[in-house]
């Protein structure tokens, strides 16, 4: 290969053919537009190429440069994650970046490693261009055992690396033997702070969880089939941050950000703070326009709530409750700091707005199944729940090969969720956030989230752009509902 000045290159290894593929932003192509070029090598010393695997097509939203292409393989297709420039000006300047142009990232797809790669949408980027994406990276690993990655066996370790695109309140937990592992406490908060100051000076993270223990503190059954066929198997001991009914000190006169996380496997909390001045700022990791908490808020397993609490005068106590039951006591302590007003709304996360006119609508019914999968003594599983007549077999490691829906990368979709049971289901989608549009049981101010608490006999609609290729879990976050059938796989390609 002749000497070349390459920038922002990426190397992908084809282990089966023992070949290295290098992709980079290239010079102008045959049509005079920016390109992605590819070199290939067997030994990382002698390189062949370049060959053009993508040139900006006619009518494409970007008409300038290309940044930092990344090459990935998923199943039998290949993906380029590329950042583009456009001459169109931004209304807002990102920091002091010059020139003031649009810059957004897009996923390109090909059937072969050497292309040609094509964009699913010529009119807009996959990620919002006003975020001024630069040197972006694509993450297609779900972390679910037997889905995209093998489980981590005893004595082994695994390092997960991923870009922090969305700020907010999140959490981590395993997806193998979930009832037992979550039941024993393998779960915790994952906080991603905003790039710029949020306006909050004080914050507390409150993890809510119940524990399946007896009076001596020994663990009891984490999932009981009779309970799993109903609302789920509840724990006996209620805790906040691992303590039963703790007292939590807060500075008087200050506005404190309370990050409430439902770490429970089963329990839906009816949260309320009688006598408090509190406002909603984010739901499930995604900001909303601030508004009063109201009488209460239903927080299902896996859901998160960011509250702003104006702490009252020193010596005042507030009860954080689940319905009538006290979870924790918030105690106002004297503070020398001057009183603060409500912060401004949190900055929105970079999420593509679904095209509701062009969106395809898919319907999902959440139902009882009431059947057994074979001989339970031989490792089969209960099938108590189903989606569209299909019950996920937790003991079948090949279920992910039969997704319940196949979505086209870059296209908008509306999911109509219908709960045909008498129990609530927090419906969670991996890999992508969605926008809650409406419900036949409650008034909805549309908002982005990753989990929606679907009430009994409720019908609701959610919408999103299928912008993340891969196979993604779609399930109820009541863990023993999930483990007894209420789960499916969604493929984006």
- Gap between N and C termini: 34 Å
Domain count, please report it: 3
CATH architectural group of the largest domain: Sandwich
The percentage helix is under 10%
Total count of strands? 32
For CATH, the homologous superfamily of the largest domain is named as Cupredoxins -  blue copper proteins
In CATH's first tier, which class of the largest domain applies?
Mainly Beta
CATH domain topology of the largest domain: Immunoglobulin-like
Overall, the morphology is globular
Average pLDDT confidence is 88
The total of helices stands at: 3
Report Rg.
25 Å
> Sheet with the most strands?
6 strands, mixed
Strand % is: 35-45%
Oligomer: single chain
| Biggest sheet: strand arrangement | 12-11-14-19-16-17
User: Structural class from helices and strands?
Assistant: mainly beta
Taking pLDDT < 50 over at least 5 consecutive residues as the criterion, the unreliable ranges are 91-95
Short characterization:
This protein is mainly beta. Helices cover 3% and strands 42% of the residues.
Fold topology:
Elements: E1 10-14, E2 19-26, E3 35-41, E4 47-55, E5 66-74, E6 77-86, E7 102-110, E8 118-119, E9 168-172, H1 178-183, E10 188-192, E11 202-211, H2 225-228, E12 237-240, E13 247-251, E14 255-262, E15 269-272, E16 277-283, E17 286-292, E18 297-299, E19 304-310, E20 317-322, E21 325-333, E22 360-372, E23 382-387, E24 405-407, E25 412-419, E26 425-429, E27 434-439, E28 447-449, E29 451-454, E30 459-465, E31 470-476, H3 479-482, E32 487-492
Parallel strand pairs: 11-14, 13-21, 22-25, 24-32
Antiparallel strand pairs: 1-2, 2-3, 3-4, 5-6, 6-7, 7-8, 9-10, 11-12, 14-19, 15-18, 15-20, 16-17, 16-19, 20-21, 22-23, 25-30, 26-29, 26-31, 27-28, 27-30, 31-32
């Amino acid at each position: 290969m002749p000497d070349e000045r390459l920038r922002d290159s990426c190397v992908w290894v084809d282990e089966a053919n023992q070949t290295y593929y290098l992709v980079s932003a290239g010079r102008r192509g045959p049509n005079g537009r920016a390109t992605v070029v590819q070199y290939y090598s067997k030994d990382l010393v002698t390189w062949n190429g370049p060959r053009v695997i993508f040139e900006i097509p006619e009518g494409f939203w970007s008409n300038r440069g290309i940044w930092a292409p990344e090459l990935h393989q998923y199943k039998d297709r290949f993906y380029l994650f590329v950042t583009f420039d456009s001459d169109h000006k931004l209304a807002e300047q990102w920091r002091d970046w010059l020139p003031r142009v649009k810059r957004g990232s897009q996923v390109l797809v090909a059937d072969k490693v050497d292309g040609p790669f094509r964009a699913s949408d010529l009119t807009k980027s996959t990620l919002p261009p006003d975020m001024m994406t630069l040197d972006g990276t694509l993450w297609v690993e779900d972390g679910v055992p037997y889905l995209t990655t093998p489980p981590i066996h005893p004595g082994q370790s695994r390092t997960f690396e991923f870009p922090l695109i969305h700020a907010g309140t999140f959490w981590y937990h395993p997806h193998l033997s979930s009832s037992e592992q979550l039941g024993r406490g393998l779960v915790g908060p994952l906080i991603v702070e905003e790039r710029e100051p949020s306006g909050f000076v004080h914050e507390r993270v409150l993890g809510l969880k119940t524990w399946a223990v007896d009076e001596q503190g020994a663990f009891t059954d984490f999932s009981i089939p009779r309970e799993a066929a109903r609302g789920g198997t509840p724990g006996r001991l209620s805790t906040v941050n691992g303590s039963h009914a703790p007292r939590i000190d807060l500075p008087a006169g200050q506005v404190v950000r309370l990050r409430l996380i439902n770490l429970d496997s089963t329990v839906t909390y009816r949260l309320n703070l009688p006598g408090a001045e509190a406002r909603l700022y984010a739901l499930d990791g995604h900001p909303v326009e601030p508004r009063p908490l109201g009488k209460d808020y239903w927080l299902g397993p896996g859901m998160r709530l960011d509250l702003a609490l104006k702490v009252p005068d020193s010596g005042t106590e507030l009860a954080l409750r689940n319905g009538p039951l006290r979870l924790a006591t918030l105690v106002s302590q004297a503070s020398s700091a001057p009183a603060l007003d409500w912060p401004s709304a949190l900055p929105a996360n970079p999420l593509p707005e679904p095209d509701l006119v062009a969106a395809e609508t898919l319907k999902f019914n959440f139902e009882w199944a009431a059947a057994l999968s074979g001989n339970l003594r031989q490792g089969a599983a209960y099938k108590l729940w189903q989606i569209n007549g299909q019950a996920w077999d937790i003991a079948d490691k090949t279920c992910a090969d039969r997704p319940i829906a196949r979505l086209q990368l870059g296209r908008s979709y509306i999911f109509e969720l219908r709960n045909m049971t008498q129990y609530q289901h927090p419906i969670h989608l991996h890999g992508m956030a969605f926008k809650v549009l409406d419900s036949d049981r409650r008034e909805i101010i549309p908002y982005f989230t990753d989990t929606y608490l679907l009430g009994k006999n409720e019908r609701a609609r959610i919408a999103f752009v299928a912008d993340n290729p891969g196979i993604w879990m779609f399930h109820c976050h009541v863990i023993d509902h999930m483990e007894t059938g209420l789960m499916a796989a969604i493929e984006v390609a």
